[in-house]
Amino acid sequence: MKAQAGVEYLILLGVTLFLGTSVVGVLVFPIGGTDAIKQSQSDISYMIQAMQYPGLSEGLVAYYKLDESGGDVAANSVGEGPDGEFENGVEHGSGKSGRAAKFDGIDDEINCGEDKFEFGHSKHAYSVWINISSLPNEYNYIVATGNSELGKQSGVGVKNNGNVFLSSYGSPIVEFGAPVLGANAWYHVVLVYKGRDADLYINGKYVGSQEISLNTSVGKCRIGSHVGDSSFFRGDIDDVKIYRRELTAEEIGFIYRTPGFP
Ligand SMILES: [Ca+2]
Ligand SMILES: [Ca+2]
User: Fold this and answer.
1) What ranges do the domains of the chain cover?
2) Cα–Cα distances in Å, from 158 out to 84, 128, 135, 148, 197?
3) Mean pLDDT of all residues belonging to the chain
4) Per the CB 3.0–4.6 Å rule, which of 105, 123, 186, 228 could disulfide with 136?
5) For residue range 103-135, what is the model confidence (pLDDT) as tens digits?
6) Which residues, chain by chain, have CB under 5 Å from ion ligand 2?
7) How much distance in Å is there from the Cα of 127 to the middle of ligand 2?
């Protein structure tokens, strides 16, 4: 009897171990291709990290992932902002996350409409990934809002010396010093306008602050150029987020670590 009970116990233990291992196996190695597994694992890791930043979509006026592989529309995936339109030959290329938009530095730009990006004097922020091919103009704009005819705009870009700048009609363009940005490397650039001054973050790290007074009106938006349709960017731009609020250092660190999210 004892021996039989022992055998039954061993069988039960074996079945339990088998079922347990199977469940763990399915969770860790789900059925599907390697890419699908990586994608689902990265989605899970995004979700876990995003739980720390539930308000990340708050104040997001527009989010252009630029993941399209054809056509002329740059879809806005979050917020009230309109879809953008590829103008003058913007191309599709490989990006920091998925696809990106490729600009020729001559006349390419994405037109994100005429009226959704009016910030006045209030706080706003830009988050964008860039890969410079070259700097053909004195000022090479990445993204700009406002209206240049009325002299009320804000725009962020890279000067021909590799410094990031922030422009405002009516007050001098401010230039941030180091780090100087080079060609053929992806950089995450975040500009946070706080009401009287602006902070620059490169690759998730705070690098400096400059005093500037911005007053954007009418609310045009352009990617890859000044709002006056000039001073064009040459290279790749990806994952453009425009916020109607400040971003914290922690949020910027998270955005840097998770390109393409959400
Ligand atoms: Ca993208
Ligand atoms: Ca062109």
Assistant:
1) 2-50, 60-257
2) 22, 12, 8, 18, 18
3) 86
4) 105
5) 999 999 999 999 899 998 899 999 999 999 999
6) 88-89, 104, 107-108
7) 24
